[in-house]
Amino acid sequence: MKEVTLKDIAKILGISVTTVSKALKGYKDVSEETRRSVMMLAENLNYKPNAIALNLKNQETKTIGLVIPEIVHTFFSNVVKGVVSEAEENGYLVITLQSSESNLIEKKQLEMLVDKRVDGILLAIADETETYEHLENLLKKEMPLVLFDKVTPTVNCSKVTIDDRKAAYEAVKLLIDSGCKKIAHLRGPLGAPNAADRHEGYVKVLEENGITYDPGLVYLCDGYSVEDGKKYAQKALKEHTDIDAFFTITDHVATGVLLHLNRNGIKVPEQVSVVGFSNSPISQVVIPGITTTDQSAVQMGREAVSLLLKEIATRKEKKPVEYFHVQLPTKLIQRASTKAV
Amino acid sequence: MKEVTLKDIAKILGISVTTVSKALKGYKDVSEETRRSVMMLAENLNYKPNAIALNLKNQETKTIGLVIPEIVHTFFSNVVKGVVSEAEENGYLVITLQSSESNLIEKKQLEMLVDKRVDGILLAIADETETYEHLENLLKKEMPLVLFDKVTPTVNCSKVTIDDRKAAYEAVKLLIDSGCKKIAHLRGPLGAPNAADRHEGYVKVLEENGITYDPGLVYLCDGYSVEDGKKYAQKALKEHTDIDAFFTITDHVATGVLLHLNRNGIKVPEQVSVVGFSNSPISQVVIPGITTTDQSAVQMGREAVSLLLKEIATRKEKKPVEYFHVQLPTKLIQRASTKAV
After folding, report:
1. B26, B59, B92: which is the final residue of a domain?
2. Torsion angles phi and psi, residue A288, rounded to 5
3. Does B282 contact A at CB distance below 8 Å?
4. Is the CB of A98 less than 8 angstroms away from the CB of B116?
5. Number of domains chain A is built from
6. Do A286 and B281 touch (CB under 8 A)?
7. Same-domain pairing of B220 and B253
8. CATH number at residue B8
9. Cα-based angle B173, B178, B181 (whole degrees, multiple of 5)
10. What value of ipTM does the predicted structure carry?
C-alpha cells in the first residue's frame, strides 16, 4: 500500500515540494543537479503522478494489522495466537488492536493501520458497527482485507466464519432431543451478525420440531460475561418458572447461568439444561461441565492470515482478486450440563 | 533505531553498493551526477559511516514490539490488553509475538523486531532462556527495552514485576494460619525467575513458622495447565497421604488439583486446602472458588509501556537513561478453597 508522494521525495532530498514538482515538470528555475536527483529518485521509488494503481513491489512492510473486539476473551486470544503463528511462519509481523466493540475506535484503528502502511488487515467487526463505509474505503484503496468471525454480507471481501446458524441449530436440537420443551435463549447484541445467526438457528430448529417460537424467552445480554449469565438466568426464571433449558451466546454466560442455578438448588441437567458456545477452558472445569460448540479459534486465525496473504500476493502480481468465504467446521461437545439423548 | 546503510542508499538510487561506497569516498570512476545524488541523499538521510550513535529524530516508527511466552493465558492476554491500550493512547502501535517459552524463538523474534525498526521492546523472558547475550546485544544497540513479569537481575534495564516472594509468603501464611501443616507446592519450571521467587517465599514462610521445609513436597510442573494440576495432585497424594494443602503456581494448576480432589471425594477445604495464583476468571467460577493472588496484569502492561516510552523520549533527547524497577502491589483474595482463619 505504500504510495510515494512528492512530499516523500522532497523530504528525502531535503528540498521543498514545489521544487520537486517543478523539477519533474522540467521547469527552468530548478538547477540541473536538483532536477537529475529528483528524476533519479522518482524513477527508483517508482513515483507515479496521481498514482492510483500502486506498485506494491519493494514497498511491502511485511506487517499486517489485526483488529479484534476484545483481547481478553479466550476465543479471541486463540484467534490472535493463530494469526501471529501463521503470519510469522510466512515472514509477516502482526500489529494487534482492540476495538472494545466500539465503532468509533474501530474506524480510528483502521486509519492508523493504513497510515502505518500495513500490507493487509484482518478484522472482526465491532458489535456497535452498523454501517460499513470505512470498510468500503479500505477496499477502494485496494487494501487487502479479510473479515473473520464477526463479518457482514454488505462488504465484498474474503471472510472466515463458522456456520453459526447450523451450530446453533445442532446445539438446540440436542436440547429438544433430550426432552427440553421450554428453551430460553440468552443471545448477544442485536448488531452482532453471529448473534443474529445463532438466534436464527434457534428459531428454525424450534419451528421444525413443533415448538412455537416465543420471543419472550429470548433475552438480550449486554455483554458476554459470567455476570450477564447470572442476571438473565434470574430474570428469565422469574418471568417463566417452567424454563427447562438455556441456550446461551458464550460459555461465560452459560457459566453465570450455572452458578445461578447451583446457588438456588436447581439441579443441572435434571431440572434445567445449560448449553454454552465456544468450548472455552471455563466450560471444561465448571461442575457440571458445559455442553458447548467448539469453533477452532486458532484455525480461524490461521485461515484468515492465509486468505489475506493470498490476496496480497495476487495484488502484487496485478492479477484479478477473487474473494473466498471459508466456513470452518464446528463440533458440538456434550458434557454433563445437558441430559443424555 | 533506524540506521541508514550503504545498501539503503544503493537501493533508493538503483545503483550498486560499491558505487555508493566509491561515490562517498570521491573515487574518480563514479560520474559527477551519481556522486552528487549519493552525497545529497546520504546527507539528507543522515547517513553515518559505521554509525553507532544513531539519531533517532524523524526516524521513529511509532511502533513497539511485545514478546510474551503465551497469548492464550489469561494473565498474558490481560498484559497485552494493557500494553495495547496504553501504547495506543500515546500514539504507538504494538507488534505482538509469542515465544512459546522457547529461547530460540525468543531470539529470532527480537531480531525480527530490530529489523522492523521498532522504537522499543517489551519482553517477558521465556522459561527456557537461561543466558542473556541476546538481551545485552539489544542494550548495546541502544534499543529501549523493558522486561516485565519474567525478568532477570542479570540484565540492566527497566523492569515491571510483582513481588513474587512476598505474594507467595502471604498466600502460604494464610494456609499456615488456617491450620495447615503439610503444604505441598506445585511449582513452575526451574528456569522461570518468578517460579523461583515464589518457591523462595514458600520456603521462607514455612521456616519462619516452625515448619521444616521438605523438598519432597515440591513438585515441578512441566507447564501451567489444568492437566498438570491433576497429574501432580495425584502423584503428591500418593507419595504423601497426609498433605493438607496445595500452593500452586497458577489458577489453572490449582483447578486441576481441585478437580482431582473433587473426583476422589476429598473435601475442600475441610481435608485439603488449595491456593492458586493470578486471579484468573477460572478461579472465580470453579466450585469452591479458589483462593489466589491478584496481580493486576492490565496494570503491568500499562506500566511497562509507560517506562518504555519514558526511555524512548529520554534517548531521543540524548539525556542519560535511568532504569526503574516498578513492583506492582498484589492482593491475596480469599475464597472457599481455604479454611477461615
Report:
1. B59
2. -70, 155
3. yes
4. no
5. 3
6. no
7. yes
8. 1.10.260.40
9. 75
10. 0.70
